[in-house]
What does this fold into?
Amino acid sequence: RDHALTLAAELRSGYLAGSWREAASTFDVTDPATGAVVASVADCDVADGLAALSAADAAAEEWRASTPAERAALLHRVDTAMRADQENLAHLITLETGKTLTEARGEVIYAADYVRWYAEEAVRVHGRSSTAPTGDFQIVTVAEPVGPCLLITPWNVPLAMVTRKLAPAIAAGCTAVVKPAELTPLVTLAFARIVEDAGAPQGVVSVITTTRADEVCAALLADERLRKVSFTGSTAVGRLLLERSGQRVLRTSMELGGNAPFVVFDDADLDLAVEQAMIAKMRMGGQSCVGANRFLVQEGIADAFAARLGERMAATRVGSGFDEDVDLGPLIDERAVAKAQRLTDDALERGAREVARAEAPEGSCYLAPVVLDQVPADAAIISEEVFAPVAAISTFSTEAEALARANDTEHGLAGFVITASLDRARRMAGRMRSGMVGINRGLVSSVAAPFGGTKQSGLGREGGPEGIAEYLDMKYVAVPAF
Ligand code: ADP
It folds into this structure.
């Protein structure tokens, strides 16, 4: 932690227009494990935001004209530097998010994997060519960068959400202004240094840290130089950004909230079901948008599943993320704890049963993992994202019922199915209304896969070849027949 504090103390300025600048005011970053202020960073205002956009706009033509190989080389240098700096980056992530160092180290590698993937994709952007049906001309397409982008990221995976957006933007030839979450600006600033040292031309990347996200982002969205916004966060904010983007017909990518069902059938292997449930529930301490929010378990296996999951959850060691013997750190802030407690109390009042509860240290942001079963359909936790280590189990009897309940949500990000039956897995995967389905797997994220949602969980995909397409416009050129 002392090492993290030393690193944090150096990250005071915003990275704007290719240089490190002090802003007129600063805001405090706190450690959720202790509530202590660990750093103060630039609180950028509208003028700072517009300065960053000016820099992105000024650099746009030159960056667009860079070769794919040059863009790939820059990203490869960033990837190498991130891996070399894994410990420092991980310490900053643990300091500002509270997640364990083990998880933070994993996030750094996952974040670097996106950079590496898009370094490789930068030189594999394809158009197509075909003969028009009339035969008298050729259809040729060329992928072009959309232009300056605003990238707004959340606090739960503060480094990987930046690279998942920024790496494809850079690979595509776009310039970008990154707006990290105000709770977790530190690792993004540390990452900006890496990008700068790797030789990114001035203005290609800026980072604006601010407590005035609404005002600053609204000014950028209203500015004609901006061409795209990519956002990861709540559905409510996503909706607002879509409305504002509509005014200027911006390209948008939206990774919004989820309400993932985790469906376990009677025929499932119990060990596998519990193992994958732990991953789907406890990754990032339950603070993941693809985390299992509702466990739907078939009657014949429900008691055994609840008991086994309860044992595992109750054994979770909760404490400071810097302590290597700890499995789970604090939640991000007191608001998150209060929400989880409200949803847990509501379920208990409506008749749910507490199967198990772990122990947690004193401290306002710590929350002991809880397993509830017999959670009724009208409990708020069934429709609201809990974003905490609270597992809510309900039972079902038939596959049709499981499917109907799994799909009974306005969200459609991820879903999980645990079954030994190939036929059942195939049917459920085909009929679940979500952007991603994990079969006998509690983890779907991969740099090579298209991550994204349907319904109110969002628009567009991140990762894989689909992820770079979000930053490209297809130009079609009609040429005379050969
Ligand atoms: P959460 O509720 O998980 O904190 P938010 O959607 O509020 O998620 O935040 C995700 C990101 O969106 C953060 O970077 C936050 O600063 C930013 N944000 C929040 N409100 C706005 C807004 N009105 N305009 C632009 N960005 C916003």
Observations:
- The longest helix spans residues 101-121.
- The pocket of adenosine-5'-diphosphate is lined by residues 152-154, 179, 181-182, 213-214, 217, 233-234, 237, 240 (CB under 6 Å).
- The chain has 16 helices and 22 strands.
- The first strand starts at residue 14 and ends at 16.
